[in-house]
Amino acid sequence: MNVTTLSANRQRNTQQAAPRSGGRTAARATDDAIKDNPTDGANALQPQLEDPQHATARQNTPEHGTSTPGKAPGNARLRVAPPAPVSAPRAPFVALVLVLVLAGVIGILVLNTRIAENAFKLDALKTKQSTLDRDEEQLRRDLANKESPVTLASRAKQLGLVPSRTPAFLLLPDGTKLEMPGPSK
User: Fold this and answer.
1) Where in the sequence is the domain holding 119, given as residue range(s)?
2) Which of 9, 75, 138, 153 is the most exposed place for a label (fewest CB within 10 A)?
3) What is the three-class DSSP state of 66?
């Protein structure tokens, strides 16, 4: 933002104010009022340079305790005061930030602990699963071995069974013929 200041002895050009709505007209400032009160726009916040004569006359106004018969109290200049400094209490804010940081750190630690626990559980379950898979495969091989024709024949011999050489036929009353193994010789 560019701020330009005019020297104290330079006159300002004023714009004529247009009539406002409702037929009212804006008050037009005279050149003397502009020279006496240059406090509009960006110049309102600029420090005012005064003559030594005006400074002593100002010190004698009713605001400062004494009055000058030549000066009326209404001629005192009004200035824009700087805003009051804002001081927010810092302790509650710092405490809130510390609590939030602490809660975040504790939350992360709890989360990492849970993840580590679950990783150990998962590793134990994978080990158990691989053991069960090996046992299942072993049982399948044992079952396939026991179902093989060679193993069945040797087991039958151990039990005293013999293979049949000729089958026996049985004729049923309805005319069907059933093949039945005959007694061994």
Assistant:
1) 91-157
2) 9
3) coil
137 part of a folded domain? yes
Each of the 185 residues of the chain gets a pLDDT tens digit; together they read 555 555 555 555 544 455 555 544 444 444 555 555 555 555 555 555 656 565 555 555 555 445 455 555 556 788 888 888 888 788 999 999 999 999 999 999 999 999 999 999 999 999 999 999 999 999 999 999 999 999 999 999 999 888 777 777 778 888 888 777 665 55
Q: Is residue 179 part of a domain?
A: no
- Output the six-digit token pair for 45: 């916040």
Q: Is the pTM of this model over 0.70?
A: no
* Count of domains observed in the chain: 1
CA 172 to chain CA centroid, Å, is: 88
Residue 72 lies in a domain: no
